[in-house]
Write a structure and sequence with these properties.
With 320 residues, this protein is an alpha/beta fold. The chain is 34% helix and 22% strand. The chain is built from nine helices and 14 strands. α2 packs across α3, α5 (132-147) packs parallel to α6 (162-173) and α7 crosses α8 (230-242). The protein is globular and about 60 Å long. It starts with 11 loop residues before the first helix and ends with a strand.
Length: 320
């Protein structure tokens, strides 16, 4: 697919104008509209700033895959104009103008540089996840805006409540525009099957049976399965591996504890006639896009980190 045909480009002029006239922009749009990969390119092309553009992602796999994608589309070597920084791995250089990083890396930099002086624009992507890192980052940016009149901030997400972020930043900089990307490139059919949401074994069984039905049905297209966590993914993988799946099916787990090489297998191109079945946590909900997916099987539950103020720790809770 030509990236220039993605829905975000219909709003390119609005985005550039909003950041030329205002210091903070709230950008919302559905998954697949091109926000994550195309927004940094739009900002660079419009020369919104003569300093590097920093883009945060909540997960390492997202930071790496987004950097690779942008570098490939710009036809540049990763580590030159485009680079990424995650824990224990930094591919950026003095030439880097688009830096993709985890929000943890940006927070680490803020300890010695609270004004974010090395960046002209900072994009906080997937802000709807509201993790502790994201909320602290937004708070530090709110402070930095009062000290740096040249700093620009974009808060971006697929499932954002824009008024919350708009009102928060208006206290620091005055009016904050919201650009909403309207995009649904193809119709989606939704079907429901009954399963107890409080019984993980029942959800695993239902997901595995649905994958078997799809793979035996003969219609082409990769399958993306959303499960609550690593345990459910392992169970589903074992059930499917022991069942009589067609030989052209490749099972690919995707969760945070896998190595980078194991995670990146979901992006590998397969020979014609082969089908991927990606068993993923909500890491694949908005952070990354797996090309070629035609079927989505959603267990309806996810493990969400919640910060416990009393203990000072984040705990994972399974929620609808």
């Amino acid at each position: 697919m030509d990236p220039n045909t993605l829905p975000i480009y219909r709003y390119e002029a609005d985005i550039v104008r909003a950041l030329a006239d205002h210091r903070v922009l709230v950008l919302e749009g559905p998954t697949g509209s091109g926000k994550t990969t195309q927004l940094p390119k739009i900002l660079q092309r419009a020369m919104v700033t003569d300093q590097p553009i920093g883009v945060t992602q909540p997960r390492r796999i997202a930071a790496v895959s987004v950097a690779w994608r942008i570098a490939d589309e710009l036809k540049v070597q990763l580590g030159d104009e485009v680079g990424y920084a995650i824990r224990f791995d930094d591919t950026t250089s003095s030439k880097t103008v688009i830096k993709i990083m985890t929000d943890g890396i940006l927070l680490q930099e803020a300890r010695t540089d609270p004004d974010f002086s090395r960046y002209g624009v900072i994009v906080v992507d997937e802000a709807h996840e509201r993790t502790l890192n994201i909320d602290v980052t937004l708070g530090l940016l709110h402070r930095a805006l009062s000290r740096r009149p040249d700093l620009r901030v974009v808060v971006s997400s697929a499932t954002l409540q824009p008024l919350v972020f708009q009102r928060y930043f208006e206290k620091a900089v005055g009016h904050v525009p919201v650009v909403s990307i309207d995009a649904r490139p193809f119709p989606v059919e939704t079907f429901y099957k009954a399963a107890r949401s409080d019984d993980e074994d029942a959800l695993v069984e239902a997901a595995a049976l649905e994958v078997l039905d799809i793979c035996r049905g003969g219609e082409p297209g990769h399958v993306l399965v959303f499960l609550a966590g690593e345990g459910a993914i392992r169970q589903t993988y074992e059930k499917l591996a022991l069942s009589r799946l067609p030989r052209e099916v490749v099972l690919l787990p995707l969760y945070g504890k896998l190595t980078r090489q194991e995670q990146e297998r979901v992006f590998d191109e397969l020979p014609d006639g082969m089908r991927k079945v990606v068993l993923a946590t909500n890491i694949a909900e908005t952070s990354i896009t797996v090309p070629g997916v035609r079927f989505v099987v959603d267990s309806g539950v996810a493990k969400v980190p919640r910060y416990q103020a009393r203990s000072g720790m984040s705990t994972l809770f399974q929620e609808p």
